Amino acid sequence: MKDQPPIDQPLWDGLPAEARAAVSALVDSYERWLAELEQRLGRNSTNSSRPPSSDPPSLKRRRPPAPHSGRKRGGQPGHRRHVRPLVPPERLRQVVECRPPSCRRCGDALAGDDPEPIRHQVAEVPPIQPVVDEYRLHRLKCPRCRTTTCAKLPPGVPIGAFRPRLRAALSVLAGAYRLGKRPIRQLACDLLGLSISAGVICRLERQWAAELEAPVEGLREHDRAAASAHIDETSWWQGRDKMWLWAAITKGATGFTIAKSRGAAVAKAMLGTDRRKVVISDRFKSYAWVKRRQFCWAHLRRDFQAMIDRGGEAGEVGRRLLDRSDALFRWWHRVRDGTLARSSFRLYVSWLRDCLRDDLRRGLGCGCAQTAATCRELLAGETHLWTFVRVEGIEPTNNHAERALRHGVIYRKLSGGTDSESGSRFVERMLSVLATCRQQGMNVQDYLTRAYRAHLDGGTVPSLIPAAPPIAPA
């Protein structure tokens, strides 16, 4: 408590010592509580794990315009030209040769061909008319026993009303573009001229989830067997139950899981239990069992900024730690660009590591309980700060996992989550297929078409596991 008493001095002097102590303790408790509330109000995406979408409007103001450079708008002389790629000749509907009839200067007639004419392509979308086949199943009565027999659909014809490519298009609208059932229904009517009910879309989502179970389970096995993985989680709602959307990202594959728990059991099921595996994550306790772990430095920088915002000696500690991380990332970017040898990088980091350790020890005695707790946690797990220095191919941040989860976060905000277990299975499997196809440069529409066609024909659904690179001959 401050030297000034909380009440008038004469009244304060007249209180017994026990009453003064009680009032002082109450005022100190109130001041700590008020400081904690002010700190909570000051949290944003720069000093905590809150997403940028939750920032107050004061942090979203546009920057003041920069002074005019005196140059014209647009591309400057010497800049690299960007043009739209031309469609190959075999995909053109027609080629129209345009020749000038006469000279634009003297008017004399012109003839011949330009060996390298200017190619100007104009694209158009024809009216989309779905191809509809009708199968008439005749029911005939036996003249002998009077039993009625109905014909069966030919092989390869789905029981439902949609073939694989149309089903793939609808699933892309739901999973990749996050459209709800009513917008999908309206788009199918406006663009394709099809009448689809919301109930049919729900039934299709259950079918899509069942047909994608095998390839997504293969992705999860690949993630468990990988040498390294990024992992993160975010909240999700299934009806009125709070769930968690998990994402595990490895080289060429991404697997999503919606689970009831945020605990270590889910993390172990997604990552496997290989002690040699390197896991890049935040400092959440569900990953404490991982032996080879890399703390996310992007999260650390936000923690350092939170120290700065607290002010005082804690702010000075935060500024020093943030400066250390700035130097670290400058060196790391040079290593990634190939302008700094990894051996030199390790030498620089060995010096930086000692300085960072001294700053963290200073933070233990700064007088701020939260800053001291963060410094104590980092000192206890100091070895996890530098895994990316020791092991090649490991990133210092968990940005891959956070970017992968962003699609799911927007999905949750638009839809409010899912209503049932089957809906959650559809979301996790469709997100897994979408993210993996984008990682591998595959067209998700083409993959889903092949997957649904294989399921319809009774074959094996194509795998999403990335192919191993060929081994060079000795």
UniProtKB/TrEMBL annotation:
Residues annotated as domain Transposase IS66 central: 186-424
Annotated segments matching region Disordered: 40-88
DUF6444 domain location: 17-84
Low complexity: compositionally biased ranges: 43-52
Bias (Basic residues) ranges: 59-84
Pfam families: DDE_Tnp_IS66 (PF03050), DUF6444 (PF20042)
InterPro entries (alphabetical): DUF6444 (IPR045618), Transposase-related (IPR052344), Transposase_IS66_central (IPR004291)
PANTHER family hit by this protein: BLL1576 PROTEIN (PTHR33678), PTHR33678:SF2
Protein name (database record): Transposase IS66 family protein
